[in-house]
Amino acid sequence: MRVVATAGHVDHGKSTLVLALTGTDPDRFPEEKARGLTIDLGFAFCTLPSGADVGFVDVPGHTRFIKNMLAGVGAVDIAMLVVAANEGWKPQSEEHLRILDLLDVRHGIVVVTKAETVDTETLELAQIEVEEHLQGSTFEALEIVTCDARTGSGLDDVRTALDRVLSTAPSARDVQRPRLWIDRVFAAKGAGTVVTGTLTGGAITTDDELDAGGHRVRVRGIESHGQPSGRGDPGARIALNLVGVDRHDLARGDAVVRAGQWRAVTTVDVDITVLAEAELKRRGRLTAAVGSGEHRVWLRRLDDRFARLRFDDPLPLAPGDRIVLRDSGAKRTVAGAIVLDVTPVRRAADAPSRLTKPLARRILEDGWVGVAGLDARTGMPADAARDLLVAAGGEGLGESIVDADVAAAARGDAHAEVHAHHREHPNDAGIALIDLARTLGLEIAQLDALVTSSPELVVDRGRVRDRDHATPRATSAAGRALLAALATEPFAPPMPGDRALARTLVREGAVVEVDGIYFAATAIDAARALVIAALRDRGSLTIADARDVLGSTRKYVVPIMGRMDSEGVTRRRGDVRIPGPRSGLATD
Q1: CATH at 234
Q2: Does the pLDDT of residue 142 top 60, yes or no?
Q3: Domain count of the chain?
Q4: Are 227 and 1 spatial neighbours (Cβ–Cβ below 8 Å)?
Q5: Mean pLDDT value across residues 438-452
Q6: What CA–CA distance (Å, rounded) separates 270 from 352?
Q7: CA distance 391 to 535
Q8: Coil vs helix vs strand at 78
Q9: CA-CA distance, 351 to 370, in Å (whole number)?
Q10: Same domain, 319 and 386
Q11: 8 Å CB contact between 258 and 42
């Protein structure tokens, strides 16, 4: 199903036309029927001659209800602009057209209604007037159809024109990032909270775990076109029965999204289009129509093209989203905005030069960019966002993407540091990974990915070395023999016959020297695990307890426990040890 929104001046016959096409009166409230005036959004469905299903969102035409009109058109990409032949182009015809223009709605039809209430000449003049006003807008090339909904004249032409639009308009985009701006919330008897809206960006299925206005919810049921369905597709008007939230906790303007896929932001940088007849101050308070909601926002002009918007409450926005800005005091639409950046730079003065660059280049300027969260920053699926950055000159390194020039410079710095370490410490296996990361200002995972991408460097036993550097002594025949000897009695090792080799293995990290006694590093690891397990069971240990736990003698247990103290695994209190901060156990 596709969704079509109506637009046009009050009393030009939008609701009457929808009723004639669908058999359903979109005016839902008694006061609307009594006054013949649409106040809020109305909804109806029908099947066109081609067999295509279409849903209508009927909007109010009176200027006092422009807030509700904006709620109806915020998520659609097809519209039906209605102009009455007996009244011609009116102020709300113009404002509604400007709103559709700012929202970049490019598909639809224009219907000149009440055709049989005027003579042929007046009807022709009305059509000419409409064509003149459409000039320069997104509706300029759209088909104009005439009809009279009350007599039924021309309704088949309207249906045929709608069929043509639906067959030629691009399908609703599915980027696996569903978002439903809520336009109605109510409680259904026996079902609980129900929300409705036009779904965009991706599909929603029964039992999906989602976020609705900041609340974690589960989809209990879905209706589309008034019929139960296990799935709602993008472009369709759907109703969701939600579990996990009370209807009073949701409102029109809230969004239903997949948790983790969107950034709920309060500040965005935008490309702004000011209407020709409007005045927009450098700074000011405005009303922003986003999706189905109306939100208060502070605007700051960054230059003649760009602006920064700061919302009172966070909204799930992404680059490409369109916003309509209104001056609530003057009660008029003043501008439209396209979201460019949902992670704007802190200093507003730096933003304009950044915003002139493509999205991918702006993101790459942030340095090491995590792949996780790229979908929220770009409004694209994660894989597509990654491809976008790589195409813009990025290089994938582990779980990050980095500008290729930045990555090359970092590799060069790493090479230089490693080679310098080899010159100064020829007997070392390499520079410690943590030390090199600190020097380069990188995280361990980032450095590991960088080294992995370098054909000249390797990571071996927590150290980075040149690939051509001598093989660590620990893997030599003598080194393996010494480690095997120490392992025969791991907690009471024999004194090494080759002290120089033992000291080299200490530098390589394979051996640990404590108070002149050489333990295999694996023995210290095993001792640590045994001590922590004993502390978990007993709460504290004496040296005698530790001796029993390790099955060794005081000569070796004392230096081992001293090592545990220095690591923070234990803390000494008199003659006992209690858990230390590095034990992973609760400490007082």
Answers
A1: 2.40.30.10
A2: yes
A3: 5
A4: no
A5: 93
A6: 10
A7: 54
A8: strand
A9: 22
A10: no
A11: no
The backbone region for 434, taken as left when phi is positive above 0, alpha when psi lies in -120 to 50, beta otherwise, is alpha
Mean pLDDT on 50-77: 85
DSSP 465: E
Can you tell me the distance from the alpha carbon of 171 to that of 161, in angstroms, rounded to the nearest whole number? 17
The letter for the amino acid at 176 is Q
In a domain, 547, yes or no: yes
Provide the CATH number for the domain around residue 506.
1.10.10.10
Closest CA to 321 of 301, 304, 342: 342
**587 in a domain, yes or no?**
no
Give me the mean pLDDT over the 112-119 stretch. 95
Kindly give, in sequence order, each residue whose CB lies less than 8 Å from that of residue 250, ignoring residues fewer than 6 positions away: 182, 185, 193, 195, 212, 213, 215
Tokens representing residue 28 in the block: 């839902």
DSSP string, 287-336: EEEETTEEEEEEEEE-SSSEEEEEEEEEEEE-TT-EEEEEETTTTEEEEE
Indicate whether 514 belongs to any domain: yes
Q: Which domain holds residue 442?
A: 357-470
Do 502 and 543 fall into the same domain?
yes
Residue 323, beta-bridge partner list: 337
- Last residue in a domain, options 168, 197, 224: 168
Unique residue bearing structure tokens 């059509």: 127
Which token pair is 519?
Answer: 């333990």
**Is the same domain home to 207 and 68?**
no
- Compute the CA torsion angle 85, 91, 96, 98 (nearest 10 deg): 120
- If you average pLDDT over residues 70-95, what whole number do you get? 91
- Same domain membership, residue 391 and residue 242: no
Please indicate whether residue 209 or residue 172 has the higher confidence score (pLDDT): 209
Helix intervals (H) in 103-245: 120-134, 155-168
Q: What is the pLDDT of residues 346-403, one digit of tens each?
A: 999 999 999 999 999 999 999 999 998 899 999 999 899 999 999 999 999 999 999 9
Is residue 588 situated within a structural domain?
no
For the chain, how far is it from start to end, CA to CA, in angstroms? 63
Give pTM, 2 decimals.
Answer: 0.77
Instruction: Please tell me whether residues 451 and 514 are part of one structural domain.
Output: no
Q: Specify whether the CB–CB gap between 18 and 182 falls below 8 A.
A: no
Tokens at 25, concatenated: 């009166």
Q: d(Cα 478, Cα 473) in Å, to the nearest integer?
A: 8
> What are the residues whose beta carbons fall under 8 Å from the beta carbon of 167, sequence distance 6 or more?
50, 52
**Quick one: tokens of 300?**
């700051």
Largest CA distance in the chain: 115
Pairwise CA distance, residues 579 & 347, whole Å: 47
